[in-house]
Write a structure and sequence with these properties.
This protein is of the alpha+beta class. The chain is globular. It has helices at about 5-10, 60-75, 110-120; strands at about 20, 25-30, 35-45, 80-85, 100-105. It has a 5-stranded antiparallel sheet with strand order 1-2-3-5-4, covered by helices on one side. It is built from 3 helices and 5 strands. The chain is about 25% helix and about 20% strand.
Length: about 120
């Protein structure tokens, strides 16, 4: 896999607003946010798409979700709720071919009828 934008962020070749880093992952704010809170959690290991995940990556992928949950708690939106999603390939909306977990929060993200129920609850 060739270097991607995310590889360059991991290597500090280009700047990013990093909010978490450990041996396995990096989390940083999305430069084109789709919600009031929008950050990405990426593995440091280069994996191009969901289709490229191997059995040996099981714990690494789980770790990305653990990081997302801990950051949601730390940033104060875990109880309100959030969306954590990975896109895969062009029809799935993937634009950078380095696996990444989008975490979006800060407003209702559900289907519109669900949002109406939220307002009356």
């Amino acid at each position: 896999m060739s270097d991607t934008l995310f590889t360059k962020i991991i290597n500090r070749e280009i700047p990013a607003e990093i909010i978490h880093e450990d041996d396995l992952s990096l989390a940083f704010k999305d430069i084109n946010p789709q919600a009031p809170v929008h950050f990405l959690v990426i593995p440091k290991k280069p994996i191009a798409t969901i289709n490229d995940i191997e059995e040996a990556d099981r714990e690494l992928i789980g770790h990305l979700y653990v990081v997302a949950a801990r950051l949601a708690e730390k940033m104060g939106f875990a109880e309100e709720g959030y969306r954590a999603v990975m896109n895969c390939n062009p029809y799935g909306g993937q634009t950078v071919y380095h696996l990444h977990l989008h975490v979006l929060a800060g407003k209702p993200l559900g289907w519109p009828p669900y949002q109406d129920k939220l307002k009356t609850a």
